[in-house]
Design goal:
Layout lengths: L1 E3 L2 E3 L6 H11 L6 H9 L11 H35 L18 E3 L18 H11 L5 E3 L10 H8 L2 E6 L5 H17 L4 E8 L9 H15 L3 E6 H5 L11 E5 L13 H15 L5 E6 L15 H18 L3 E3 L9 H8 L26 H23 L8 H28 L2 H28 L6 H5 L9 H26 L8 H17 L9 H21 L4 H17 L18
Parallel strand pairs: 3-4, 3-10, 4-5, 5-6, 6-7, 7-8, 8-9, 9-10
Antiparallel strand pairs: 1-2
Helix pairs in contact: 3-12, 3-13, 4-5, 6-7, 9-10, 12-13, 12-14, 13-14, 13-17, 14-16, 14-17, 16-17, 16-18, 17-19, 18-19
C-alpha cells in the first residue's frame, strides 16, 4: 500500500470515489514518479486480473487522453489543409502578365546579378551576361529601357541590336557634374552608333525627386543632348514633379512619367492600380497638350511590407501588370513596365520591396509567371501545407509523449491549447519560410530571419511539453541569471533560449517599426508562431507569487508602446501591421505574468482533473 498525506490507498477492489479523492491529493504532493505512474495506471495490464477495477481504470485512463489527442489532431490537420487550400487558390486575371504571343511594349532592364550593384564603381557587367538576359527578354518584349551608360551598360545597345530589341537609352544625372558630362557624351555616342536600335534618350531619371539638380540646369542639359542626338529626347520623373516643373515642356520631345501606385503618398491598392495609372496619365496629358505621355515606369512589388492597403504579392503584381497592359491596348498609350529582373542589391536600400519589382526572378532568371501556369501567391503551397501538417503532428507527438509520463490525466483545455499551438504553427510555418526566403538579404539577414524561424518552429514543440508537464514559462533569470539560480534541465534551458531569441528579434523589429519603418517588414507569421505557445503556458501554467522581473517588464513595455504607435502610424487598412501589433500585445501580456520567484508550478499543476 501507499501513503499519501493522511489518506491510505489500497490496491485491489476499491471504491471509485475514494480512488478519485486520492488522485486529487496526489496532484498536491511531490511523489516518486514511478509510484505516481503505478498509482494512476495501476499494475501492468498483463498482470491485472480480467474484470478487476484497476485493469478497467487503466484502460479508461489511457483511452481518454488518446481520444482527446485524436480529436484535436484531426481538427488541427483539417484546419491546416483547408487554410492552405485557400491560400493556394490561383488568381483570375484579365490576361496573362507575360505572353510570348502578345509581347509587352517595353520593360526596364538592369543587368546586375548576385552581389553586383550600381553603387560600386568597381562593378563591370560582362558582355556574356547581358547577351544572355537580352536573348531571354526578346521572347517577351520588343523594347527595353536602360538608365545609365557606365559599369558596362554601354554594351547594351549593340547586343540589343543583335537580339532584335529597341532601346530607350538612359543617361544618368546626379550632383557629380563631371560624371554627368561623361554620361551625356556616352549617350549621344550610342544614339549615333545604333540609330536603328536606340529610339529615344532619357536625360536624367528622377533627379528632381532626389533634389540633385535644378529644373533650369536640367532643361539646359536636355537641350544640349537634343541638339546632337538625332533621336527624340525626354526626361523621366514621378508624375507630380512634371506637374510642378512645367517649364520642362519646351525642352523635351515627349513627357515620361513614373506611376508606381504602391509608392504614392496615399498608397493605391493593387485592385485600383491600373485605373489609377490611367487617371494620372490623362491628368498629365491635359497639363501638357500636344505632347505624348509615356508611362516610363509602372509596376508592383511581388514581396515586402504593406503600405496602408497596398499589399505586395505575386497575385497583385500579376494583376496590376495584366490590367495596365489591357488598359494601354484599349486606350492606345505606351507603357514601360518596371522592371525585367528583381534586383536583390536594392534590398539593402529599400527593404524587401526594393528587390521585388521584377517579372523575372533575379537568382534563377526565370519568369515568375510562366505562360499557361496559374498565378498563385504560394506556388509551392502543397509542399508548404505538407510541411505544416508534419510540424503539427510533431507538436501533438511531443504532447502525447509527455502526457504519458504525467501522473494524472491532462485537462481538456490543455489539449485545446496544444491544438491551437499546433494549428497556428502548421498554418504559418510555410508562410514564414517563404517570407524568410524573400526577406533575407546578405549573410546577416539570413542568420537573423533563419534564427527567428527556428525559434518560432521550436516554440510550439517546447510549449507542448511544458503544457503537459505543468511547467511554467521560463524566465530570463532562469537562463541568464546567477549560476545558483539557473535551471539545470537542458529542456528548460533550450526553451528559455527560444524565448530570448523571440524577445530580442521581436524588440529590434518593434523599435525599427517605430523609428525607421519604411523598409522594415512585418514578421507577423513567425512572431505569432512563437508567441501563441508562450501565451498558452502563461495562461494555463501560471507563475507563483513574487515580484515581476525588471527585464520582462521592460520588454513588455516596449512591445505595448510599439503596438500602440505602429498601429496608429500604419493605419487600419494595413492588416500586416495590425496582426504584428496584436502579436506584440500578446507577448507583452505573457511577459507580465512572469514572476521572479520560482514560477515552475510543478509537474502536475496544469493537469488536475
Amino acid at each position: 500500500m501507499f501513503w499519501i498525506g493522511s489518506g491510505q490507498l489500497k490496491t485491489g477492489s476499491v471504491d471509485l470515489s475514494e480512488r478519485r479523492r486520492q488522485t486529487y491529493l496526489a496532484c498536491d504532493h511531490v511523489i516518486d514518479s514511478q509510484q505516481a505512474t503505478r498509482l494512476f495506471f495501476g499494475p501492468p495490464v498483463s498482470s491485472t486480473p480480467a474484470g478487476s477495477f484497476v485493469g478497467d481504470a487503466t484502460l479508461i485512463s489511457r483511452r481518454a487522453p488518446l481520444t482527446l489527442l485524436l480529436i484535436s489532431l484531426v481538427i488541427s490537420l483539417g484546419a491546416i489543409a483547408a487554410v492552405w487550400w485557400w491560400l493556394g487558390l490561383p488568381a483570375d486575371l484579365a490576361r496573362a502578365p507575360i505572353d510570348p504571343n502578345d509581347k509587352v511594349q517595353c520593360i526596364s532592364y538592369a543587368p546586375f546579378r548576385s552581389h553586383q550593384t550600381s553603387l560600386s564603381p568597381a562593378t563591370q557587367v560582362s558582355r556574356e551576361q547581358i547577351a544572355e538576359d537580352l536573348a531571354q527578354l526578346a521572347k517577351v518584349t520588343d523594347c527595353i529601357r536602360t538608365y545609365a551608360t557606365d559599369l558596362g551598360l554601354d554594351q547594351i545597345p549593340g547586343l540589343a541590336a543583335e537580339a532584335g530589341l529597341k532601346v530607350i537609352q538612359g543617361i544618368f544625372l546626379d550632383r557629380d557634374r563631371r560624371k554627368n558630362s561623361e554620361q551625356i557624351a556616352a549617350g549621344i555616342r550610342l544614339a549615333r552608333d545604333y540609330p536603328g536600335t536606340v529610339i529615344a534618350l532619357v536625360v536624367g531619371n528622377e533627379v528632381l525627386l532626389r533634389k540633385e539638380m535644378a529644373a533650369s540646369e536640367l532643361a539646359a542639359a536636355i537641350r544640349t543632348v537634343k541638339a546632337q542626338a538625332g533621336v527624340p529626347v525626354t526626361y523621366a520623373d514621378v508624375w507630380e514633379f512634371w506637374l510642378g516643373n512645367r517649364e520642362l515642356d519646351d525642352a523635351v520631345d515627349f513627357v515620361t512619367i513614373h506611376i508606381l501606385p504602391y509608392w504614392e503618398n496615399v498608397p493605391i491598392p493593387a485592385e485600383r492600380a491600373a485605373a489609377h495609372a490611367g487617371e494620372i496619365r490623362r491628368r498629365v496629358a491635359s497639363a501638357f497638350p500636344g505632347k505624348e505621355i509615356l508611362i516610363g515606369e509602372f509596376g508592383w512589388p511581388s514581396a515586402g511590407r504593406m503600405r496602408e492597403s497596398a499589399l505586395p504579392s505575386r497575385i497583385n503584381q500579376a494583376r496590376a501588370v495584366s490590367e495596365v497592359l489591357d488598359l494601354a491596348r484599349r486606350e492606345n498609350f505606351r507603357v514601360n513596365l518596371f522592371e525585367a529582373y528583381d534586383e536583390g542589391w536594392k534590398q539593402e536600400l529599400e527593404g524587401t520591396v526594393g528587390g521585388s519589382w521584377g517579372l523575372f526572378d533575379s537568382l534563377w532568371r526565370t519568369l515568375k509567371y510562366p505562360p499557361g501556369v496559374p498565378v498563385r501567391n504560394y506556388p509551392l503551397w502543397k509542399l508548404q501545407m505538407c510541411s505544416g501538417l508534419a510540424l503539427a503532428i510533431l507538436v501533438f507527438s511531443a504532447a502525447w509523449l509527455r502526457s504519458r509520463r504525467t501522473p494524472t490525466q491532462p485537462r481538456a483545455v490543455v489539449w485545446v491549447a496544444v491544438g491551437v499551438s499546433a494549428t497556428t504553427a502548421g498554418i504559418l510555418f510555410g508562410v514564414s519560410a517563404q517570407k524568410m526566403f524573400y526577406e533575407s538579404s546578405g549573410v546577416g539577414g539570413w542568420l537573423l530571419w533563419g534564427s527567428f524561424l527556428a525559434a518560432a518552429t521550436a516554440s510550439p514543440l517546447f510549449g507542448a511539453n511544458a503544457l503537459m508537464s505543468g511547467r511554467g514559462l521560463p524566465g530570463l533569470l532562469d537562463v541568464l541569471g546567477p549560476k545558483q539560480g539557473r535551471v539545470r534541465s537542458a529542456l528548460e534551458i533550450l526553451h528559455g533560449l527560444v524565448l530570448i531569441v523571440t524577445l530580442v528579434i521581436g524588440t529590434a523589429t518593434a523599435i525599427g517599426l517605430v523609428f525607421d519603418p519604411r523598409n522594415i517588414d512585418f514578421p507577423f507569421s513567425s512572431l505569432t508562431m512563437a508567441a501563441v505557445p508562450f501565451a498558452a503556458i502563461a495562461l494555463l501554467n501560471p507563475a507563483g507569487e513574487g515580484s515581476r522581473p525588471l527585464a520582462e517588464s521592460i520588454f513588455a513595455g516596449v512591445f505595448l508602446a510599439a503596438a500602440i504607435y505602429v498601429g496608429f502610424n500604419e493605419g487600419p487598412s494595413n492588416w500586416q501591421s495590425l496582426w504584428t501589433c496584436a502579436a506584440f500585445v500578446l507577448l507583452a501580456l505573457t511577459l507580465l505574468r512572469v514572476r521572479a520567484s520560482d514560477h515552475s508550478v510543478g509537474e502536475t499543476a496544469a493537469v488536475k482533473n
